[in-house]
Structures are given as structure tokens and as C-alpha cells.
Amino acid sequence: MIKLLVADDEHLVRQALVSLLSLQADFQIVGQVANGEQAVKTAVDSAADVVLMDIQMPVMDGVAATALIKKQRPHTQVLVLTTYDDNRLIADAMKSGAGGYLLKDAGADEIAAAVRAVHQGYTALGASIAPKLVSQLAAVESAAGRPEKDKLTPRERELLRLLKQGMTNAQMAGQLGITEKTIRDHMVNILAQLNLRDRTQAALWAQRNLD
Questions:
Q1: Which end of the chain is more exposed for a tag (fewer CB within 10 A), N or C?
Q2: Is residue 136 assigned to a domain?
């Protein structure tokens, strides 16, 4: 059962989301809140598995709330659901620790699938969002000089290939017979070597550069 918290300052939108998502047999709605400050408190108090997070909210916005939730409950995943597809907001949300970013024109089935995906540790991006992140990654590569594959060890390239398949750290550790800590240590080095910010950028880099 996925414990789901819905955070949106628009009452009708919030109620509609709760009504639709409560129909999913594997979802348990543990709360609904109207601002980011409430989202942080309720996420911690309810031990929510996933927070469905709006961006523009009073008191505290969704980006700041996401960062605080990830700091206080690292295992809680955040899926942004917003009307804004602004490049800066997308980058800020993902940098703050969001596991996915969807627009509010997504259907109920797409939202439910994205909730399940981020709960499992995957990145869930709306169809119009993924190209924007690819463009941002291209800009990073252009500014820093295109990363060379030979900066990476064979093991690190292997991890990147698994990452682009959507595997979590636990899944990679199980397949390779090593600990999750070893995986995390490798990922830190990969991000440093390639001058990337997070796992999402690493997965996109792997899609572009590794067979």
C-alpha cells in the first residue's frame, strides 16, 4: 500500500485528486494540505511514501517544501504536479529532490502510474518535461566541455547503463552483488567526474552517451 499525501492550494483540484486517486486499490490517502509548510509537517507525521506536490502555494512553495521533506524523510518521494512547465522551476524542483514532474493536464491513470514509479525509485517525467531536461543537460555539457567516457571506470559505466534502465540503487546492488553503500559511493564519483547534478542528469547522460 502506497501512503499518499496530496498538497495543492486549490480546494477543488485537491478534492478531485483525492477522489480519483483514492480509487486506486494500492493507494492510501494519508492527508491533503493547502500549502508547503503543511505538506512538510504532514509528510513527516504520517510517514507518507509519496507526496503529490503543487509548486505555487502560499506560506511555502512546493520546491522549498520538497527540499525540507527530503532532508527530514529521505525515503519519502515527491512527485510534482503543476501547471507550470518553466525550465527554471523544473530544474529547481528536480534539484530539491523531486522524483518526478508532471503537468496538471495529465490523466488520472498517468498520475497514478507516476506515483507508483517514484515510489519504486524511478524518475517520472511528463512527455513535455523530459525534452526540457535533456536540453538542460546539453547546456551543461556544452558549458563544461563534453564529458569523456574514459573518465569513468568500467564498473561506473556498467552502473550508468543500469541507471538508464530505471533501476534503483537496491536493484543495482542486488544484480551486481555489491552493497547499496558501494553503489552510492560510485554514483557520487560519477556525478563529480561528469560534472552532473543528480541521478536524473546522469540517466539522461547515459541515454545520450552509452550503448
A1: C
A2: no
